[in-house]
């Protein structure tokens, strides 16, 4: 049930060295419907659809694992820090309450 | 042409409808979230009966007045060395009066390097937002701030 969603991984600062602690933001276009709101035109409930789990994997090692509930805003942003530890790949896997699984990855190349 | 008395009649009807309508919309069965959880149960479920300590180490940054309850930025910063022996295990963001008090549980590891988390949450009304922090030695710290919401965001 994979569906293409717009998502983005941002690392700040853009140029970083090995061993540096950088800020990582993950943004995703997702409705995050709570299941308690109604469509104003049709007066029908909008079924719940929200991300319930997010994993940050760096070179196959899990660094952050989040359990998410309904109360996050539409198109959520998740920001944490991460310690750069050599060349590799950062993969973000996110799961939906309807069983939708998606992932996004970014190459990490420290300079110097 | 509209007569004075007609005008007053119509005015009366409009006033009656507008007074009743909001009451009716509240009186109808509001659908509850499937995993509704109160604030006290949420804290108990996380801490397992321990009482969290208030601490200045946990810095919670939330706007005091949120114009739009659908998008409230929350930032949690914790003073921690993040070494393998002393690090922040988890950050939980809780909203006291939402259907489901739990917003997000973030499990951190020493590989994060810095104990910080930031996101945007929905608030159903004026309430308190708290950050419950679990340290690697099993202690729980808490920081709370009240947020005034002008327009609710949970429908």
How is the topology of this model organized?
The complex is a heterodimer of chains A (112) and B (155).
Chain A: E1 7-12, E2 21-28, E3 51-58, E4 61-68, E5 77-83, E6 88-96, E7 101-108
Chain B: H1 4-27, H2 39-47, E1 53-54, E2 58-61, E3 65-68, E4 72-78, E5 88-95, E6 102-107, E7 116-121, E8 127-135, E9 140-151
Parallel strand pairs in B: 1-9, 3-9
Antiparallel strand pairs in B: 2-4, 4-7, 5-6, 5-8, 8-9
End-to-end CA span of chain A: 41 Å
Global shape of chain B: elongated
CATH top level of chain B is Mainly Beta
| Biggest sheet features of chain A | 4 strands, antiparallel
Treating each run of at least 4 consecutive H or I residues as one helix, how many helices of chain B? Answer: 2
Question: C-alpha Rg of chain A, in Å?
Answer: 16 Å
Q: Which percent bin holds the helix content of chain B?
A: 10-25%
Q: Supply the number of structural domains of chain A.
A: 1
According to CATH, the homologous superfamily of chain A is Immunoglobulins
**Per CATH, what is the topology of chain B?**
Immunoglobulin-like
Radius of gyration of chain B: 22 Å
Mean pLDDT of chain B: 84
CATH architecture title of chain B: Sandwich
Helix share bin of chain A? under 10%
Strand and helix order of chain B:
HHEEEEEEEEE
CATH class membership of chain A? Mainly Beta
Oligomer: heterodimer
Tell me the CATH topology of chain A.
Answer: Immunoglobulin-like
Low-pLDDT segments, ≥5 res of chain A: none
The CATH architecture assignment of chain A turns out to be Sandwich
């Amino acid at each position: 049930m994979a569906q293409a969603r717009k998502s983005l991984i941002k690392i700040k600062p853009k140029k970083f060295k090995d061993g540096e602690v950088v800020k990582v933001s993950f943004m995703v276009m997702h409705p995050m419907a709570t299941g308690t709101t109604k469509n104003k035109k049709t007066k029908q409930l909008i079924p719940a659809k929200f991300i319930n789990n997010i994993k940050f994997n760096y070179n196959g090692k899990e660094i952050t694992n989040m359990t998410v509930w309904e109360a996050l805003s539409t198109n959520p942003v998740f920001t944490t820090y991460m310690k750069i530890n050599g060349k590799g790949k950062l993969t973000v896997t996110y799961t939906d309450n309807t069983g939708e699984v998606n992932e996004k990855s970014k190459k990490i190349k420290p300079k110097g | 042409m509209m007569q004075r008395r007609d005008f007053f009649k119509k005015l009366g009807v409009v006033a009656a409808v507008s007074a009743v309508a909001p009451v009716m919309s509240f009186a109808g069965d509001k659908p509850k979230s499937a995993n509704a959880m109160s604030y006290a149960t949420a804290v108990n479920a996380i801490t397992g009966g321990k009482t969290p300590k208030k601490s200045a180490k946990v810095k919670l940054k939330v706007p005091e007045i949120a114009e739009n309850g659908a998008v409230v930025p929350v930032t949690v910063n914790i003073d921690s060395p993040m070494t393998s022996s002393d690090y922040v295990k988890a950050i939980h963001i809780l909203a006291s009066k939402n259907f489901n008090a739990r917003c997000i549980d973030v499990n951190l590891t020493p590989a994060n390097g810095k104990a910080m988390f930031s996101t945007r949450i929905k608030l159903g009304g004026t309430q308190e937002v708290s950050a419950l922090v679990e340290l690697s030695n099993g202690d729980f710290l808490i920081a709370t701030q009240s947020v005034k919401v002008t327009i609710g965001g949970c429908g």
